[in-house]
């Protein structure tokens, strides 16, 4: 059973609301602007719902117009306020020079301010109202700036943290100010009283789908006397303030929700919601003893929990919870696909690890006690699984597996652990500060012994965290040479031995003067080369740093080719496009400058000059971090998706494809099963098996599977780029592979999902 805990993003539709919408579509389907009987009945329904909204929101006067949702309401309110300011300026009046909005507002607000300010040519200054560590507005700052504000925008309750704004304090801060006041009431509807008649709020916006109504219906309240400029003009509906035939099915559904709010019995009272939140919080504390909650319970909505867990990123937690059937989010659903940390938590001044790893759990006021109890049980089970798979704060049990190569990634930066399963000796290459705790835990939980911590170069975007990792490990987990150079290499040693494997080093100055490649050899010869930022998938490392050696770059590339050849896999220190590895042969095909250097057509000086031209305007990465190379392979990624029906057909054939599950072990252990036989290969260990997969790809197609199709697509694209043309990703992942579809695939052991 799916446990939906993302109610701040959207909610299911209340049964009464569904019934009301269906009744309108089949019975009361008239146009409320028509004057015949069907239209009059529709008009009566519209008026009843509007009256219910007035009662629930305590707004007996002013306009209450139906919209498509809060975004339209915000756009209309901002346009109305700014157009009013513009009319006053045109009439010769002086107007306030600033527009203010809360620093933690939903992005719809500042974007609307910027849009209409520019479109109307006002040129007003837009400023964010600071918030404190508690997420509440700085009222002293607001009082100091209120006299210069033409419009002030604040939310009643925050969508990410649940923090409740001090609306009465804001009203006092605005006393005497010429500003109009817009309140985003989306998260407040049904959860806290807004008392619109008692507060000097000029505009308030609401969205039905946040409180058990369908998507596509919302409300905009406009105080009597506040300026109104229609966003949509035409037929004169909604008192000529919002043209377009009303969404009667949505309005009827919203009316049913409002009636349920008034009648009681459907939505839990606030004291019950507080108790349910405390049960969920207790389950989180049991699962993750060092969990930190990012908003104080006493000043936030009882239906929202925003938390961070040290050493556990939000992506890992989201994958874990989703595998357990717990649907939560990393913050606002509108920003879920973006890589940046939460701007809401950043505005609160929380530490970076909390802003980048936060998870939001939000339940609905109509959720049953049984659902909450089941959610608590699954949260505790998630914690137990993390402990058992060397992920939790106090991992227990048998030592975990020592895969030959494990890759960790932080905002495109790569760190590798090379290990020997028999001796349990390991080497960390390019450690990252953000990973210190996680790497120490990974090593100790597996009974590992650290033989070296190596950097491929002196990094331009961070200091080496090698010593931090060494300090974080107990003495029993260390077997380091007494003398080590600045990059961590044992002084005078020809190599670092890990059982049957060993690492050697190769100086390749260019990206930096001390750039070094580490070559991994096994019984069969050279296996991989860790090349830092000298060569990256789709790019060459930049050489415009103070510590760079641009005149040495071309010669180093030729040295690298002479040592490893054109086809050995190169593991980069940065992989911004999740391609895992590359070869000199692949990069030459896309990079004429590289090809020219390797073929001797471009000398050191010409190489450095042309490369410098490429690096004059390198934009930051999508993570807003320093880019360590200029991309030259800008081809659109090819489609690797394989539809489920095609996979079923292939599975019935004489030579079925190899199925590979790239989810992490903790996901499989916490989930349920579906009938798909797949080889488990966590994405974090994929790089270690890439050299051995050429024959498999030639034999039969490889189809990668994961939860959503995202990680499996990364794996398939990586293999395609390395020449394995029959690599695919199951479209939509296991999330769209229903149990009925799964049973249609014959044979095989169960694959946990």
- Helical segment count: 25
Q: Strand share of the residues?
A: 15-25%
Indicate the mean pLDDT: 89
- CA gyration radius, whole angstroms: 30 Å
- Termini Cα gap: 12 Å
Number of strands: 31
Subunit arrangement of the protein: single chain
**Poorly predicted sequence stretches spanning 5 or more consecutive residues:** 333-339, 741-753
Provide a descriptive summary of the structure in words.
With 753 residues, the chain is an alpha/beta fold. The chain is 34% helix and 18% strand. The protein has 25 helices and 31 strands. The chain has a 7-stranded mixed beta sheet with strand order 2-8-7-6-5-3-4, with helices on both faces. A hairpin with a 2-residue loop joins strand 19 and strand 20 (525-532). Helix 1 (15-26) runs antiparallel to helix 8 and helix 16 packs across helix 18. The longest helix is centred in the N-terminal third of the chain and has 21 residues, at 37-57. The chain is globular and about 90 Å long. The model is unreliable at 333-339 and 741-753 (pLDDT under 50).
Please outline what is shown here.
The protein contains 25 helices and 31 strands. The strands form eight sheets. A seven-stranded mixed beta sheet has the order 2-8-7-6-5-3-4, with helices on both faces.
List the main descriptive attributes of the protein structure presented here.
single chain, 753 residues, alpha/beta, seven-stranded mixed β-sheet, five-stranded mixed β-sheet, 25 helices
């Amino acid at each position: 059973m799916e446990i939906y805990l993302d109610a701040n993003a959207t909610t299911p539709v209340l049964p009464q609301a569904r019934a009301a919408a269906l009744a309108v579509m089949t019975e009361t389907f008239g146009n409320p602007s028509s004057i015949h009987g069907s239209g009059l009945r529709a008009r009566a329904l519209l008026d009843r719902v509007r009256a219910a909204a007035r009662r629930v929101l305590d707004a007996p006067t002013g306009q209450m117009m139906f919209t498509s949702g809060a975004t339209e309401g915000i756009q209309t309110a901002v346009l109305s306020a700014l157009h009013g300011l513009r009319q006053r300026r045109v009439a010769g009046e002086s107007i306030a020079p600033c527009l203010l909005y809360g620093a933690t507002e939903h992005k719809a607000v500042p974007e609307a301010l910027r849009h209409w300010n520019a479109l109307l040519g006002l040129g007003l200054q837009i400023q964010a109202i600071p918030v404190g560590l508690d997420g509440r507005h700085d009222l002293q700052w607001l009082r100091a700036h209120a006299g210069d504000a033409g419009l002030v925008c604040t939310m009643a309750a925050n969508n990410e943290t649940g923090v409740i704004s001090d609306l009465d304090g804001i009203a006092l801060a605005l006393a005497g100010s010429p500003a109009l006041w817009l309140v985003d009431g989306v998260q407040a509807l049904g959860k806290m009283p807004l008392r619109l008649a008692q507060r000097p709020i000029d505009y308030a916006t609401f969205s039905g789908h946040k409180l058990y109504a369908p998507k596509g219906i919302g409300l905009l309240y406009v105080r009597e006397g506040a300026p109104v400029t229609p966003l949509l003009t035409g037929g004169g509906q909604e008192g000529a303030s919002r043209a377009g035939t009303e969404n009667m099915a949505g309005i009827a559904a919203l009316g049913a929700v409002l009636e349920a709010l008034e009648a009681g019995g459907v939505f839990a009272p606030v004291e019950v919601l507080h108790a349910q939140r405390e049960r969920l919080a207790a389950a989180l504390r049991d699962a993750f003893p060092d969990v930190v909650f990012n908003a104080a319970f006493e000043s936030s909505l009882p239906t929202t929990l925003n938390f961070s867990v040290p050493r556990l990123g939000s992506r890992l937690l989201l994958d874990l919870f989703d595998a357990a059937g717990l649907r939560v989010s990393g913050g606002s659903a509108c920003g879920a696909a973006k890589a940046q940390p939460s701007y809401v938590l950043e505005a609160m001044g929380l530490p970076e690890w909390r802003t980048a790893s936060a998870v939001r759990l939000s339940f609905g006021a109509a959720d049953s006690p049984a659902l909450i109890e089941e959610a608590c049980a699954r949260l505790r089970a998630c914690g137990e699984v993390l402990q058992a798979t060397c992920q939790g704060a106090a991992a227990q049990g048998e030592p975990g597996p020592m895969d030959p190569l494990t890759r960790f990634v932080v905002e495109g930066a790569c760190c590798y652990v090379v290990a020997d399963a028999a001796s349990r000796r390991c080497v960390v290459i390019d450690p990252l500060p953000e990973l210190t705790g996680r790497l120490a835990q990974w090593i100790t939980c597996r009974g590992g012994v650290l033989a070296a911590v190596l950097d491929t170069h002196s990094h331009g975007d961070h200091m080496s965290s090698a010593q931090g990792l060494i300090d974080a490990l107990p003495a029993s987990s260390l077997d380091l040479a007494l003398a080590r150079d600045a990059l961590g290499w044992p002084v005078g040693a020809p190599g670092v031995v890990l059982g049957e494997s060993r690492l050697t080093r190769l100086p390749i100055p260019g990206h930096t003067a001390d750039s070094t490649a580490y070559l991994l050899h096994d019984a069969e010869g050279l296996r991989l080369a860790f090349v830092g930022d000298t060569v990256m998938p789709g790019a060459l490392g930049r050489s415009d740093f103070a510590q760079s050696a641009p005149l040495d770059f071309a010669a180093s590339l030729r040295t690298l080719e002479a040592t490893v050849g054109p086809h050995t896999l190169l593991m980069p220190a940065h992989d911004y496009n999740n391609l895992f590895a590359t070869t000199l042969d692949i990069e030459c095909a896309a990079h004429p400058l590289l090809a020219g250097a390797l073929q001797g057509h471009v000398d050191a000086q010409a190489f450095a000059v042309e490369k410098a031209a490429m690096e004059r305007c390198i934009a930051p990465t999508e993570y807003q971090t320093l880019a360590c190379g200029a991309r030259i392979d800008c081809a659109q990624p090819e489609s690797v998706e394989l539809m489920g029906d095609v996979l079923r057909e292939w599975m019935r054939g004489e030579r079925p494809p190899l199925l590979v599950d790239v989810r992490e072990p903790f996901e499989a252990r916490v989930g349920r099963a579906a009938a798909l036989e797949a080889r488990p290969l966590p994405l974090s260990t994929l790089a270690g098996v890439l050299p051995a997969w050429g024959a498999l790809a030639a034999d039969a197609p490889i189809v990668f599977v994961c939860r959503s199709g995202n990680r499996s697509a990364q794996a398939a694209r990586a293999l395609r780029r390395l020449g394995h043309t029959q690599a695919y990703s199951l479209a939509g992942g296991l999330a769209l592979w229903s149990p009925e579809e799964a049973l249609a695939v014959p044979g095989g052991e169960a694959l946990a999902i």
